[in-house]
Known about the structure:
This protein has 19 helices and 13 strands. By secondary structure, the chain is an alpha+beta fold.
Amino acid sequence: MAAPKKGRSASAQSRPGRSLALILIAIAALTGGMFASGHTTPRLGIDLAGGTSITLTAKNEPGQPNAINKTNMDTAVDIMNRRVNGLGVSEAEVQTQGTDNIIVNIPKGTNSKQAREQVGTTAKLYFRPVLTTEVSGADASASPSPSASSSSSGKATDKATSSSSAPATPSATATSQGRAVTDALKADSTPSSSGSPSSSASSSASPSASASADPATAKLQAEYAALDCSDKAARAKAGDGAKPTDPTVACGQNSSGQWQKYVLGPAEVSGTDIKKAAAVFDTQSAAGWKVTMDFTSGGSKKFAAITGKLAQQQSPQNQFAIVLDGEVVSDPFVSQALTGGNAEISGSFTQTEAQDLANMLKYGALPLSFKESSVTTVTAALGGEQLHAGLIAGAIGLALVIIYLVLYYRGLSIIAIASLGVSAILTYVLMALLGPAIGFALNLPAVCGAIVAIGITADSFIVFFERIRDEIREGRSLRPAVERAWPRARRTILVSDFVSFLAAAVLFIVTVGKVQGFAFTLGLTTVLDVVVVFLFTKPLMTILARKKFFAEGHRWSGLDPKRLGAKPPLRRTRRASAPVDTKEA
């Protein structure tokens, strides 16, 4: 029964070259992939590469003086993180500072401009009915834009309309705009049962009389008459402070590039009614990139109701405006109720613009409005100095480990140093490949994690070597000592690495920002330690155990039985029988 077992053991010991070939092929493949991808160096975080630091300050919403609180700030941080991650920008740090500030750090080399627009945009989306609209400011003298059209599939197409006419005197323009606002608000509101024809005519003929009767309408008239959408500052203030339930003014750019101003009714559908949003390229028309939206069940009902109501109106009151953060991004008109539960936003979008808009709609609106308090450029000078110091510390630590291995383990240090080299190559190559793959960026804590991993890897070698020495002390020769020591060492190494990996995983889950870089690197190097020990260290030890230098216990091999205090060999020897005298026999 012992012979088959011995045969299997010998067979297992005779094939260490397969494991070595496997890990060398893996190293060659990964290295080739690194050079083929063109990413031969790891991506660096903001502390090593520099970048942009943005400070956002929260603003109180109208009618909500207590909106700035910890819950809303934490929600805003979470949404900003998801938006930036949706762009593929890694190592972007988003964290609160104080009670009303959020700090966003974006590393150099990423699309910082795009990420900057994403984090600061509130992304509050409303579908509002258009009450009246016309080309604004300097664009008013240009030719009217094309009329709108609607697709039969129930999805509106953005072609803004214009109700502009020949230029008029300022007083005449203001009067006509005031009447347009009054008439639009009256058409949009429910008729009063007590209203008389005479009062209606008087209201229609005299904006001042209408203003005195309704201060809100007078204010809206004044805002609309004074609004010049060709002015960037005026666009930013248009409709500022308006509630979703109130009429408001807004600006938007039509398909001809002209700025238009609008009077919009109360919001009928909001961004919270959107279930899904995606950027799609329209191959069936010249619209190009657009954003498709799927509504929730409640949003579908609201959308069907408002489009059914607008379909009965005359232009431009059969249009609805898609308003994002106070700006009209699309103003399609409808001819029938749209009950499909979906809609699309088009309007000469580029691919990046469509993806940005879909990204913001998909992850939801921020609970607060923010303004940029400061934008600063972070240089890599300080981080470079710290990295230099860290690399020196790592080199000193590695040198001390190597000196210890050479002095204490002598010839066995060859195996340890070779294993450290393989582990270092795998770590570097994987870090370079993980940058474009998952957005991993190397920062200072990650460098610290890599330095700590040197000790973890060296510990695995020491466990294995000491188990071999224990077997030699028991009187066994080297080759059986290696095979008997491996199961005991393997169990210890796996338990130790499991504890390290578990600690790294917990640290990665419960922390944010740069600490996650430390945890990720520690977990990665721990996994690589298991791979290197199983596929490189053990097979190499098995091969070298067959060499005379190690097998006979040379004094510089680190396995000299005399220096280890070995017992007599554990093998039975037959006592020689006395020679037989043939003559006596």
